[in-house]
Hints:
This protein is α/β, with parallel strands linked by helices. The protein has helices at residues 2-11, 30-46, 69-77, 93-96; strands at 18-23, 52-58, 86-87. It is 40% helix and 15% strand.
Amino acid sequence: MYLKACKDDVNAGVPGKFLHAVLGQDACDVGSVVSTIMYSFYLHSSVKSDLFCTVPVINMKRADLNSHAELKWLLHTCNVDHSLLIFIDATNLCTLSDSCY
Length: 101
């Protein structure tokens, strides 16, 4: 439910909220993806405010997911719909934030 809510907020342009994007490292592996999602969820859960939209951004292109069989297996095994993930090439974070330089 959390990933769907994040995707919906980003698709809507994060209306009336401050964007907190959690971005993983460049060498995107299973640990990086899991850490990005879990840390984002932790921040979302611990900061009880409707002013913030904390979203995990997977630091790889969506098309590159096919070359990561272990990641696809993990997502499938955990019943995570990969279409709900926000990939770095799927959104322009600068258009969603007032503080892009």
